[in-house]
Automatic annotation (TrEMBL):
Residues 2-84 form the Threonine synthase N-terminal domain. GO terms for molecular function: pyridoxal phosphate binding; threonine synthase activity. This is Threonine synthase. The lineage of its organism: Bacteria, Pseudomonadati, Pseudomonadota, Gammaproteobacteria, Lysobacterales. Its EC number is 4.2.3.1. It comes from Pseudolysobacter antarcticus.
Length: 447
């Protein structure tokens, strides 16, 4: 399989430059600023997965065509076994025809662990000509940074630099970002997630910097995150198919469209997913686009579902690659926005109604499903549960009136000391910092 840039395709270039998987993973973003997408799509039927019942077993079959012809092809099985060491349970809820796909059983308690661990397992195995340390630059609205930090912590030859909006992530998210040390640096930026994302993008287009410093990305634009995220949708949809012989529908909490793109891609290559509905917080870029067909990027708004505070979803170009025609896209997909007040009431009602404590992001999806049911939508639906509620204790606990038990992996991270360096929302300062701190071991914080 070869990969091409969404922008080359958008400009209908006769022969777009195609690269192999390893090159696409190393680069993160395509040189023209577009996102890498597969040059062609494989096609699967449920029978192709006969005998495969675990997440890694399904992932090995599903991802094989995407690795075909690349140096990593022979490593795919080992990569899946290394990355997918925790389950993604499809839990039946006490309401009829309703499930939760729990994606928060990894080391940092959010779905980002699947993609980050898979990407790390890939990058670790790619032979690079460059002997210098590879810098992985990540902007995070909360959960990506810690998942990437956990996945790359102490991986030789790689350092991770995380930018997050100071004060706009939950206290436990902030702690997780700063608690690794060693080859991981956390920068708390006096700005929004959009500022962090802009600074990272600027670094990627800074050719002089990139000559001085090998850079790679681990944001949701990376193929190394997008591709493996298909695995849990494939797993859940196949489990449901085997039991009921019908497709499973999903409501996906959505910010940068990484998780939802994986669901759409899994369906496009033949997995038995039914409808996919996007659930957003008060950041209405996608709901407005589906309403009026006009995509208008805007500044993000801070909400209590902070990992979805995105005003210009970075995977939007991939969405348009998969659905170039606006009219048919509007017919295929819906996005529904949920405000903070509704998120709060959904969390408060969650224990009684579902026997579940929802994180604010999962509550967004739960409310969207309730809205769909009120419109008399039929069929089996899964709420995609993207994070553990204990990550958002300051929001969740006052609403449910008691403490949320902390999963052991999260507790272990919270017990470590944490440190983050302040930074202005200015690219020049980031650039300077990156160049001065080329050796992560030279003056790493020691507290
Ligand atoms: C990142 C994140 C989301 C949004 O996922 P995207 O891939 O950016 O759309 C939703 N919920 C949680 C808990 C997250 O960490």
């Amino acid at each position: 399989m070869r990969y091409v840039s969404t922008r080359a395709l958008a400009h209908a270039e006769a022969t777009p430059i195609a690269v192999g998987l390893s090159d696409a993973l190393n680069a993160g973003l395509a040189p023209d600023g577009g996102l890498y997408v597969p040059q062609s799509l494989p096609h699967f039927a449920p029978q192709d997965f006969a005998g495969a019942t675990t997440l890694p077993a399904i992932a090995k079959i599903l991802l094989q065509p995407f690795f075909a012809g690349d140096a990593l092809e022979s490593e795919l099985a080992a990569i899946c076994d290394q990355a997918f060491t925790f389950a993604a349970p499809l839990k039946r809820l006490p309401l009829a025809q309703t499930y939760a796909l729990e994606l928060f059983h990894g080391p940092t308690a959010a779905f980002k662990d699947f993609g980050a661990r898979f990407l790390a397992a890939c990058l670790q195995r790619i032979q690079r000509d460059d002997a210098r340390v590879l810098t992985i630059l990540v902007a995070t609205s909360g959960d990506t940074g810690s998942a990437v930090a956990a996945a790359f912590h102490n991986v030789p030859g790689i350092r991770v630099v995380i930018l997050y909006p100071d004060g706009l992530v939950s206290p436990r998210q902030a702690h997780q970002l700063g608690c690794f040390g060693d080859n991981i640096s956390a920068l708390r930026v006096a700005g929004t997630f959009d500022d962090c994302q802009r600074m990272v993008k600027q670094a990627f287009t800074d050719t002089t910097l990139r000559e001085l410093l090998p850079l790679s990305s681990a944001n949701s634009i990376s193929l190394g995150r997008l591709l493996p995220q298909m695995s849990y949708y494939a797993w859940a949809a196949l489990s449901h198919w085997r039991e009921h012989n019908s497709p499973l529908n999903f409501v996906v909490p959505t910010g940068n469209l990484g998780n939802a793109m994986a669901a759409l891609l899994a369906r496009a290559i033949g997995l038995p997913l039914g409808e996919i509905v996007l659930a957003t917080n008060a950041n209405r870029t996608l709901p407005d686009f589906f309403d009026n067909g006009e995509y208008r990027a805007r500044p993000s708004i801070a909400t209590i579902a902070n990992a979805m505070d995105v005003g210009d979803p970075s995977n939007y170009e991939r969405l348009r690659w998969l659905f170039p025609d606006t009219n048919s896209l509007q017919k295929t997909l819906r996005a529904i926005a949920v405000d903070d007040a509704t998120i709060r009431t959904t969390i408060a009602a969650g224990e009684k109604r579902y026997g579940e404590i929802w994180c604010p992001h999962t509550a967004v999806a739960t409310h969207v499903l309730e809205q769909l049911r009120a419109e008399n939508t039929q069929g089996d639906w899964a709420i995609v549960a993207t994070a553990h509620p204990a990550k958002f204790d300051t929001v969740v606990e006052p609403l449910i009136g008691h403490a949320v038990a902390v999963p052991p992996a999260l507790a272990a991270l919270l017990a470590r000391p944490a440190h983050a360096e302040p930074m202005h929302a200015e690219y020049a300062q980031l650039r300077e910092w990156l160049l001065q701190r080329r050796d992560p071991h030279a003056d790493a914080p020691t507290d």
